[in-house]
Amino acid sequence: EGGRxxxxxxxxxxxxxxxxxxxxxxxxxxxxxxxxxxxxxxWSHSLGIxxxxxxxxxGCIDIMTDHTIQGSFLRLYxxxxxxxxxxQPLWIPRHEYYNGLADFLKHNRTSTDYILKHLYGSYRxxxxxxxxxxxxxxxxxxxxxxxLGAFRTLYSAICIEIASRGLVVAAVEHRDGSAxxxxxxxxxxxxxSEGEQLSVPTSSTLTLDQLEEKWLYYKPHxxxxxxxxxxxxxxxxxxxxxxxxxxxxxxxxxxxxxQNVFPLDFDxxxxxxxxxxxxxxxxGHSFGGATVLDSLSKELRFxxxxxxxxxxFPLEDDIHTRIQKPILFINSExxxxxxxxxxxxxxxxxxxxRKMITIMGTVHQSFPDFTxxxxxxxxxxxxxxxxxxxxxxxxISNKAALAFMQRHLGLQQDFDQWDTLIDGKGEHIIPGTNIxxxxxxxxxxx
Length: 446
What we know:
By secondary structure, the protein is α/β, with parallel strands linked by helices. The protein is 29% helix and 18% strand.
């Protein structure tokens, strides 16, 4: 029994979900470091974020419009034009994100920064950074919402694959306190002749040297605090941020000049009239799955949603009465529990397609990129890998999502070749859930 308890605690080491209390992770983090040292570095050479399998080369930029905390911050993945000289961005782009992960894990920042940077600091994302946009027809749009404790870069494999199939993906970085870390800018102040602080004049074209970074780290649930009120407030803000990202991309599609805080060569005018805004989906993992549902209840421009291992706790009990759009729930084998599944099944409908499938041999962390960057031994020890090859698992998930989006966005692609996955038919997949249900709830959403 004790061994199982330790294993359960270890599996939450980097668990982007509703972990409201955590043990001391010092020994566990040190164990990872020692194991990797003892195993050598050769095993890690085969590790890495997978490239897209579709026909399009994928480019990537970060966009921050309106430098304040009310602005929009996202990573954009898109079909691009190849450049001979190009760079691939770091997977974890700033050391402050390691500090945020330490806060999320309730662990010392210095040791966590050192260990996580040693494990993951050299990985790059297989995209062309700041590559020209490929202006070739109209692309459907997907807004992606990350899980609790994550940030905009941690679902690169999913976003790259979808973009390689001819869609544009905007991975939002949420500023509701659910990201392990994020940042925005404030205008610098300067003293006047009397020593008073004066703001730099407000301008839509402020340069980075006129701005000061402000980091916002993970906001933990405090003891005695009503967690539902906290998470419910956050999910509403997250939905607003997804709509804000959609509004910003709508303006870009109209040819309206967008002032990006980051100095890039990217020509936004190439995107004019290249987004098919009649074909917009929203997708997310865990807390991001809840964000999908809240967004669908409010924003009519989202035509359908894909929720990966949705965490239903932050949502009101009557959320099912306010959603009139198709939804695909893709669950892992090991994460779900009865209460959560029953709340999902409240969304069953006889008139609107609601589907739920479960990928066997998977865990909650089979969706973020960590599963591709950790060897089998450590990955299974710390709950970052299931028994199913992570490349097979994410391939099933991505194909099911693409088939569902083709069906409900009216895409003229060949994604319907994977329609059977939507029905839970195929190897490593079942319809519905693996969680035993009461007899009255055993049908539908399948």
